[in-house]
Amino acid sequence: MTVVRGIRKAFLAVEQSEGDGARVRRSVGTPALRNFSPFLMLDHFNVQPPAGFPDHPHRGQETITYLLSGAVDHEDFAGNAGSIEKGDLQFMTAGKGIMHAEMPRASDDGSSVTGLQLWVDLPEKLKSCEPRYRDLKGSEIPTVDIDDNKVHIKVISGQSHGVDSVQELSYTPVWMLDIEIKPGGKVVQSLPQKWNAFAYTLSGNTAFGVGADKTTIGQYHNVVFEQDGDEIVAEVSADEKENGHFILIAGVPLDQKIVQYGPFVVSSQDQVYQALMDYQTHSNGFERAKNWQSEIGKRAIH
């Protein structure tokens, strides 16, 4: 007998300012949902270039960026540079220290650049690993259609209805599925037991759960599922005018303390002080930050 996961809570992600002129809807990493291990932060960003995220440091976490529209250029102090476009992903491991810039690129029609950035905690033993980047092109992501083609699933990482994607998004195992449901469609999606899981709704009205627990959730909400259970159920009523579109994310909880100070995610207060000292003195991973300035960061609006 499989057990459907209940909804622990669902809440609206309120838009706020971030970076240099950017707007984000933050749902993980707020008082409503803090340190939902292994997840530290989820931002749904909407950026009108030349706004963006100019030169800034990280330590102790990984970021997963999924672009929904437009293009983003990135550049770091190790000489890495590149771009991702609509449907692409980029995975960045900060490890012991990185300094980089992420700047949305202006489009011909002046439209904004939108996407999701998820912060994943690094296992304590890997907090001091070397920084790294990986890109995943949208064309490389396997898909599956179910329920008479009323449900379309991009299997970014994980397993869905016989389709496997073995992408290593981060050192901590994470599943990520992009699910779009037409009116009248329904999906029953299996998830690994005891993993923490949530859905972020991008558009439409989607009903999650079954029976008395079934709840219809609108756009820009984070739906946090109970840890117990084998699967989630989502459907869109046949009388809806719009498809339901959400990202389903699940990950292995880490049994470790989280101490976060801005872009530094460590395991103790002493390590926060050490991270600040290392950054200010350009040492222990931040040596290359000294006098470094990205080219793309110069596009910022300040």
TrEMBL record:
Cofactor remark from the record: Binds 1 Fe cation per subunit.
Keyword hit for Iron: yes
Coiled coil: none
Cofactor dependency: Fe cation
Residue span, Pirin N-terminal domain: 22-120
InterPro entries: Pirin (IPR012093), Pirin_C_dom (IPR008778), Pirin_N_dom (IPR003829), RmlC-like_jellyroll (IPR014710), RmlC_Cupin_sf (IPR011051)
Residues that bind Fe cation: H56, H58, H100, E102
GO MF annotations, alphabetized: metal ion binding
The keyword Lipid biosynthesis is annotated on this UniProt entry: no
Family recorded in the similarity comment: Belongs to the pirin family.
Name of the protein in question: Putative pirin-1
Organism: Coleophoma cylindrospora
Lineage: Eukaryota, Fungi, Dikarya, Ascomycota, Pezizomycotina
